[in-house]
Write a structure and sequence with these properties.
Helix content is about 45%, strand content about 15%. By secondary structure, the chain is an alpha+beta fold. The strands form 5 sheets. Strands 1, 2, 3, 4, 5, 9, 10 and 11 form an 8-stranded antiparallel beta sheet that branches. It has a 7-stranded antiparallel beta sheet with strand order 14-13-19-20-21-18-17. Strand 2 and strand 3 form a beta hairpin. The protein is globular and about 70 Å long.
């Protein structure tokens, strides 16, 4: 482990600073005194050990976080993290999204959406030296492929033990590499979800907002074979028995209490250069926000509310809306902030520090200029690349392209294949084709592709692609009606909407694809060479970035070390621990947001119309002040959600929120609107995470959904 990541002098000075930082578990012993002073009662050494309590109870869902809460493999996560599985099992006649679901016995539990996984982290190994060995003289695409080959070899060796999934994570832009080994549980079942009017109360209106009153929780269960090892779904499988699980607190937390969150945060960008900041906020976010909002409108216009077509797209709509609002907040607060000037000032100070020493000048003198040049090259076709990305919301087009790529990759040896197309990826690949069965409606798919192609056709000719133009007849005299007729014929003729046909294409050859009459297969064939040429150029640029960014980060780390500043890596979907306290905040002058919401806030918001349409029974319970065992005297009610200062981002959704004894006191599910910008720059005054309170979860389960079987299964402590 790199000791310079958190020197003792820095750790000693860190107690007086904000609760900033997404820490790798091995860094936490250096923060032991800080954590103890803040209120942590268990040993910091325990948190650094992945095979011991509580870290071995924290699991990944491959995009969200979750945790074991019983010895029988019961898993709790956010409602929105289980949303895809709830939607997959819903139909217009049996809408589990709207009505909720509870399995009263094991045999009533439902298979989660195809491809659902539970990942239990068992080991993290520093493999930096192994990845970098022999690559120092390479550059560009050769360097990119060299790193990729090393990573694939390490993963292949790690995965020789069946039932495990391994991945190499890059930290600090490639300055360090760690191999993560996880048990991959493949039989995942839906156990319980509240109705959307609880689990998604407030919907997109309240998303990222405070005060919040959302019961954002659901339950899965992990199953394995009778030998205790991961296995495909089978009625003969048995519940997984984790090495440890979290106790659930019925006492909860109070204002000022210590809390920590363990989970898998997605991506942060706090060390990005000023030029990267400027590009992201001036171009990428504004365009992405608009495109997402427009696709949302298309889906809603094309698929009527409550129809089977709409149900198929509910998960897509939720994802689109979530990030559209996220980008909106980013832009709003960036416009008010001095972020760009601050980043420029930071770089100027870094350059002065580099220039003050001849050795530093020789090592880092050209680093930032080179980085800026490569960033500019990467973004020269941004308008076109964004439209191509959002065309990916057309399942027909995207599926045909991935299947044709698979045919090409299968002609290579497994270790030469592109990641995502190796044998280890085939189960996930197949599952994605199966999920399409409940996520694809031709009418919606066509509307999205038509709109994206219209916008693409409006680009300057030099930005467009010759092969795509030729296939759709796009030229100076672009004809919308002609395009509409062509798409009508394509969707009428394609067989990719049939699951068996999609799966059959996984075993076809390149020659089979070239001979196909399916119009979307023909589109994939016609544009393949151009796509590969662009990918090759992207890999060249990424290879150059992989050479320069570690040097940039090494300079930042060395500079921060001299200044006595803490150093943690940007989030990269690997396991991290954050800590803080329950605390309100002031979103604007003259206003203070208290850290708890109450049951009565639900009735105050309720209109009886989605998204403020709490179940009638819940409203009756609240009006009758049926607080039961979860009444908090200081609040005069049952707490619903609470705020804390923990430093989190996307991917942390579903993360267990723990008290000082590592008991579950809530689930992290969101951040306040003002703190979304925290992915780029942390501000202690406004950085707040939102958690569903364990007492509200237990209250709903006991009095509203009568999930007595699950309450009896969990270890609930006062």
């Amino acid at each position: 482990m790199k000791k310079w990541l958190l020197p003792a002098a820095i750790a000693a000075s860190f107690g007086a600073q904000a609760d900033e930082g997404m820490w790798q578990p091995h860094q936490l012993p250096a923060l032991a005194d800080v954590l103890k002073a803040k209120g942590m009662e268990i040993s910091a050494d325990n948190i650094s050990k992945l095979t011991e309590f509580p870290m071995n109870a924290v699991i990944s869902l491959g995009g969200c976080t979750a945790s074991f809460v019983s010895p029988k493999g019961l898993v709790v996560t956010n409602h929105h993290c289980a949303y895809g599985s709830i939607q997959y099992n819903s139909t217009a006649d049996n809408n589990l999204l709207a009505n909720g679901f509870l399995a009263k016995s094991l045999d009533e539990e439902l298979p989660a959406a195809p491809g659902s996984r539970i990942y239990v982290t068992e080991a993290i190994t520093d493999v930096t030296a192994k990845v970098n060995d022999g690559l120092d003289k390479l550059s560009g695409e050769a360097f990119y492929k060299g790193v990729e080959a090393k990573e694939k070899a390490l993963v292949a060796e790690c995965e020789q033990e069946k039932g495990y999934s391994c991945r190499v994570y890059s930290f600090h832009g490639g300055l360090e590499y760690y191999l993560v080994k996880q048990m991959e549980i493949r039989d995942v079942r839906l156990v319980h979800n509240p109705a959307a009017s609880v689990g998604k109360y407030g919907g997109d209106v309240d998303n990222w907002m405070w005060p919040r009153h959302t019961g954002d929780y659901s339950f899965y269960r992990a199953y394995v074979g009778k030998d205790g090892k991961p296995a495909d779904f089978s009625k003969d499988n048995v519940p997984f028995e984790p090495k440890s699980f979290l106790k659930v607190s019925a006492k909860g937390v109070q204002d000022g209490d210590f809390v920590m969150v363990a989970g898998y945060p997605g991506r942060t960008n706090r060390y990005r250069s000023a030029s990267e900041v400027a590009n992201q906020f001036a171009s990428n976010y504004p365009q992405s926000k608009q495109l997402r909002e427009d696709i949302i409108s298309l889906i809603k216009q094309t698929a009527a509310a409550g129809s089977d077509e709409r149900i198929k797209y509910e998960s897509t709509l939720a994802s689109l809306a979530n990030y559209a609002k996220n980008f909106g907040s980013m832009l709003e607060f960036y416009g008010k902030s001095s972020m760009l000037d601050d980043r420029k000032a930071r770089e100027a100070e870094l350059n002065r520090w580099i220039s003050a020493d001849a050795k530093r000048q020789a090592k880092y003198g050209q680093t930032l200029a080179t980085l800026d040049q490569l960033v500019a090259q990467s973004n020269q076709h941004l308008d076109r690349d964004l439209l191509l990305y959002y065309m990916g919301y057309s399942y027909a087009k995207d599926t045909a392209e991935r299947l044709y790529r698979l045919a090409h990759e299968k002609a290579k040896s497994d270790m030469e294949r592109e990641p995502g197309y190796q044998e280890r990826d085939m189960e996930r690949f197949k599952a994605s084709l199966e999920r399409m069965e409940r996520r694809y409606a031709p009418s919606v798919d066509k509307a999205i592709l038509f709109e994206m192609l219209k916008r693409y056709a409006a680009l300057p000719a030099e930005q467009r692609l010759a092969d795509l133009d030729k296939f759709f007849g796009i030229d100076k005299k672009f004809d919308e009606k002609k395009l509409a007729k062509q798409l009508d014929k394509m969707y009428g003729a394609t067989q990719l909407g049939d699951k068996d046909m999609r799966l059959a294409w996984m075993d076809k050859s390149v020659a089979d694809f070239k001979a196909s009459k399916d119009p979307f297969i023909q589109l994939a064939v016609a544009t393949f060479d151009g796509t590969m040429a662009r990918e090759q150029e992207e890999k060249r640029l990424e290879g150059e970035l992989l050479k320069v960014r570690p040097a940039y980060m090494e300079a930042i780390i060395a500079h921060n070390k001299e200044l006595g500043k803490p150093v943690y890596a940007d989030a990269n979907s690997s396991l991290r621990v954050t800590y803080g306290n329950v605390k309100g905040y002031s979103p604007k002058d003259g206003m203070f947001a208290v850290p708890f919401t109450r049951l009565e806030g639900i009735t105050a918001k309720d209109t009886g119309v989605d998204p403020f349409d709490a179940p009638k029974k819940e409203l009756e319970l609240i009006n009758a002040k049926q607080y039961g065992d979860f009444h908090v005297k200081s609040l005069g009610s049952v707490p619903v959600n609470f705020l804390s200062t923990v430093d989190t981002t996307g991917g942390n959704s579903g993360s267990p929120t723990l008290n000082g004894r590592a008991e579950l006191v809530g689930l992290l599910f969101d951040g306040v609107y003002e703190s979304i910008i925290g992915d780029w720059a942390y501000d202690d005054n406004i950085n707040r995470s939102i958690h569903v309170d364990s007492r509200y979860m237990l209250w709903v389960m006991k009095y509203l959904d009568h999930a007595d079987n699950l309450l009896a299964e969990m270890d609930i402590v006062e």
